[in-house]
Amino acid sequence: MNVIRGRELDGAVERKCDVLVIGSGAAGAVVACELAEAGQDVVVVEEGAYLPASEYGRMRPTESMRHLWRDGGLSFAVGLGDTPMINVMMGRCLGGSSLLTGGVCFRIPGSVLHDWSTRLGLSELTEHALEPCYASVERAINVTEVPVEMRSRSTVLFAEGAERLGIRMLPLRRNTKDCDGCGRCNFGCPHGRKLSVDITYLPRAIAAGASVYSDFAVDELLIERGRATGARGRVLDGPLARTRARFRIRARRVVLSAGAFNSPVLLMKSGLGRGRSGQIGHNLTLHPGFRVMARFDEKVRGWRGSLQAAYSDALERDRITLVGLFVPPGVLAATMPGIGAELARRAATIPELGVFGGMLHDEAGGNVNLSFGQPYMTYRMSPLDRRSVPTLMRRMAEIWFEAGAREVFLPILGLGPIDRDRLRTLDLEHVPGRSLECASQHPLGTCRMGTSAASSVVDPEGQCWELPGLYIADGSILPTSLGVNPQLSIMTMATRIAWRLRERPLPS
Amino acid sequence: MLRALGAIAEALFATASGPPPRDRIGWLLEECEDFLSRAGARSRLLVGLGVLAVSLLAPLMVLRFPPLRRLSHRERVRALRKLEASPAASPLFAIKALLSLVYYEHPDAAREIGFDGECLRGGP
Predict the structure, then answer these.
(1) Out of A40, B21, B44, B110, which could bridge A18 as a Cys pair, Cβ 3.0 to 4.6 Å?
(2) Hey, what domains does chain A have and what are their CATH numbers?
């Protein structure tokens, strides 16, 4: 793929184009491709590096974290009140987080669309209206159901336990082709079988004439006479992100697709956010996720199989979705209590572990903030969400025991393995938030879409109320959390915005 | 910071026969150094503060003067065990997570815990 790497350029870069797309992840790549194929002169700038699939596929997990993940995977939302610190996974590479997802593809649940339509007035966002956009994306990234035979033993065991308790497990759909079941999609597919946007949309965009720059970090939007007219920033010289040169790109239209963390930050750095709504950076949702592990009297080797193959929405009444996953042995070992020989003894049982995840369909509780030029996230769980956490842990532990687990590891720091009796007596309702081990892969909502400038950041077309000429297309515009993995929804919304932009004449 | 990290790692990954081989700890520290150099200033600061907290707090748990690296291997293991069981364990959990992530990627460490990294459809 013919990507222009900033680290290989000399001198300042000045360019003009029809459309500048900031960010090359799931949404930015879609917008760039759709507009380039419509004949527009498109430039994509990406802060992270470009690594071909053959290169990142060979990396160990922590190598992937340092090359592909923002902050080396150490990004956190600071928990306020009785809320845990939440580790938030975000991509920082060409292709963005699409390289790091488990490949799970859900459409926006009907109940969520109904809420958007009735409560928020987004009546155009119906399943029927979105159908062509879904179809386009699903075709491009090959969304297919994960066959039962690709389930890992860990997933099989969990599904058996769930079925015994009357909890129905359903097959997930993912954007893979000929998956080998290596259980490490979150670090970049080792065989290029996950059809992330670096393999699908970005090559198409380039083939249609788009220019794609990696190592280009945008500092500020260019604004003239109240309109977005481009962006300026720094060309980075490599993994340590030192400034090598400056760039300035002028565009007739700007599309911001930097994700739910960086998009509001860039708006704030550009002087926005003091307008009518005051919503920029607010309404952050995360789908807080919890991992529950179980030890069996057999070799489970949960890494052999599709990373994510099955899910259940049977607990949606408690705002909980159960989703399969696996994590590298180092992560499993890290969550086991013990030092020295005790840890070694426990780590030796890793092949006997099953792992499954549960996430909350959360109410908005967080913010992206900018203080003294430093962006950070804060998050306060709503009382409703917080009450769901013990339910999630208890139900998942019960499922594991029903599947025959000898002991279960709950996501509570410092708590050792527990058996059935201990689960019955454990006071999960009073575990302090700071003791919970929690992670998120789905930051959403910080530039939410709405029908009024008083309560949202972008209009239903994706245009920023406060800055004409600027469109936002990424997870930040989703007005509420979804309760399901958002990759497909983000790409679908980006397709919709791109198709609308295609119809609108470019400003002179 | 790396020396302090190494002292924690030697105790954390010790087996009944003592600390892990010296070259494995050397590899671990090189990897951690590279990791932190790319992880950004904020991550480096957070990890640095975590290592400092563990180095200072753990010895106090066994009534010894800090830093942790001055303690004998046996005392270090005992100090970290006490710290892990205390209400002040949060920095240790964070450092343990970082070290474990990297350590178990070492081929020998992975083999010792039975991780072969094989895919369902055969091969790595």
Answers:
(1) A40
(2) 4-71+88-144+188-272+448-503 (3.50.50.60), 145-185+285-440 (3.30.410)
pLDDT band at A275 (very low <50, low <70, confident <90, very high): low
End-to-end Cα, chain B, rounded Å: 35
CA B99: distance to chain centroid?
A: 4
From chain B, the residues in CB contact with A239 under 8 A are 38
Give the integer Cα–Cα distance in Å for A320 and A318. Answer: 5
Assembly ipTM? 0.95
Biggest CA–CA distance in chain A, Å, is: 71
CB under 8 Å to A329, separation ≥6 — which residues?
A303, A347, A350, B104, B110, B113, B115
How many inter-chain contacts (A to B, CB under 8 Å) are there? 142
**A442 tagged catalytic:** yes
CA distance linking residue A86 with residue A385, whole number of Å: 14
Distance CA A427, CA A393 (A): 11
Q: E strands of A225-317, at which residues? A: 227-236, 243-256, 289-295, 310-312
Q: Which residues contact A10 (CB under 8 A, 6 or more apart)?
A: A245
pLDDT above 90 (res B1): no
- What are the residue boundaries of the structural domains of chain B, listed by start? 2-110
Interior CA angle at A91 toward A318 and A315, to 5°? 10
Cβ within 8 Å, pair B42-A71: yes
Which member of B90, B113, B120 has the closest CB to residue A305?
B120
Q: Which chain B residues have a beta carbon less than 8 Å from that of A413?
A: 89-90, 93
Contact B103/A at CB under 8 A? yes
In chain B, whose CA is at the least distance from the CA of A340?
B14
- Whether B47 sits inside 8 A of A334 (CB atoms) is no
pLDDT digits 0-9 by tens, A133-150: 999 999 999 999 999 999
CA A392 to each of CA A322, A421, B58: distance values in angstroms, whole numbers, following the listed order: 9, 18, 34
| Residues A192-200, mean pLDDT to the nearest whole number | 97
Q: How many C-beta atoms lie closer than 10 Å to residue A243's C-beta? A: 12
Q: Which residue of A has its CA nearest to B117?
A: A303
Average pLDDT, chain B: 94
Q: Do the Cβ atoms of B71 and B64 come closer than 8 Å?
A: yes
Contact B84 A339 (CB under 8 A): yes
Q: Quick check: B81 and A348 CB within 8 A?
A: no
* Percentage of the residues of chain A whose pLDDT score is greater than 70: 99
